Amino acid sequence: MPRLSIALVHHPVRGRDNEVVTSAITNLDIHDLARSASTYGCEHYFITHPIEAQRALVNKIREHWLHGSSGKRIPDRAVALGVLEVRASLEEVFAELGGREAIEVWATAARSSGQRLVTFAEGRARLEKASKPVLLLFGTSWGLRDEALRDADVLLEPINGPTDFNHLSVRSA
Question: Which residues pair with 136 in a beta bridge?
Fold first, then answer.
């Protein structure tokens, strides 16, 4: 199985009017993405946030589920949250994984950016043959900044439903 990690990026991300923003941590993303990461065999689930108080909140929730009463009550949740790690920036995540050159970065976006998009079938095949660990980025708010999409090695196609509405929560995508 290839080494796969995911990162939920809270800064810098796009705001409603394409401005650079820092989005807030949501409790649902902490739990739901940890469960998805564990289900799909991710080595790490990183949450990045530049504000110490937000990182402390995530760590407090994580510790409660790992070592507190909720972890004892629902052990599967403790297992899932065991893959969660909190970092101040994407650069810290890159360093944790051996540096930007040591990994392949994949990005997701709900919009097309003009770059060649990789289908999910192509991505699955590429992941199975990956020689480097893969880090899959998810953007909060209105998504990853254009720079992050351009700097990615792979840009996955958007998820499109049968309607014109396309604004899935990051944990659903």
Answer: 6, 106
